[in-house]
Amino acid sequence: MAANCELYRKASIGTCLTDALDELVTNGSLTPLLAVKVLMQFDKSMNDALQTKIKSKVSFKGHLHTYRYYDNMWTFLLEKALFKTENESVQVDLVKVIACDAKATTR
Q1: CA–CA distance, 84 with 89 (Å, rounded to integer)
Q2: Can you tell me the distance from the alpha carbon of 8 to that of 2, in angstroms, rounded to the nearest whole number?
Q3: CA–CA distance, 95 with 80 (Å, rounded to integer)
Q4: Which of 11, 28, 42, 61 is most buried, by the most CB atoms less than 10 A from its CB?
Q5: How far apart are CA 79 and CA 91, in angstroms?
Q6: d(CA 22, CA 31)
Q7: Is 43 helix (H, G, I), strand (E, B) or coil?
Q8: Full-prediction pTM beyond 0.90?
Q9: What local confidence, expressed as pLDDT, does residue 2 receive?
Q10: Top-confidence residue, 65 or 5
Q11: Is the CA virtual torsion 11, 14, 18, 24 positive or negative?
């Protein structure tokens, strides 16, 4: 796996970027190599922005149904999870939390 976590490519902003890059490659406006470099920069920029720009903190707890660590990625499946911020609390029946291994993303 790449040193930067590719998790945000599956978010709406990442899928829109991927779709736009695919269209540019298909019509010949962009080389596939440059499209890959743009995605790699996107991964790095998202990780950097979330580490330096976001100051909010969220805590959560719930019943751990399943967990897995594979390819520097943690996946937790929580039941009856409660998410708390400074201002509000939200409870959900089932949630999947995916996290990159911090050691793997800082290389």
Answers
A1: 4
A2: 13
A3: 8
A4: 42
A5: 10
A6: 10
A7: helix
A8: no
A9: 45
A10: 65
A11: positive
Burial 8-22 (b: 16+ CB within 10 A, else e): beeeeebeebbeebe
Which residue is associated with the tokens 């897995």?
68
Residues in CB range of 50: below 8 A, 6 or more apart: none
Token pair, residue 58, equals 């969220």
Tell me how far the alpha carbon of residue 98 is from its chain's centroid. 7
69-76, long-range: CB < 8 A, 24+ apart? 69/101, 71/1, 72/1, 72/5, 72/100, 72/101, 72/103, 72/104, 72/105, 73/1, 73/5, 73/7, 73/98, 73/99, 73/100, 73/101, 74/98, 74/99, 74/100, 74/101
Residue 85, CA atoms < 13 Å, CB-side half-sphere: 6
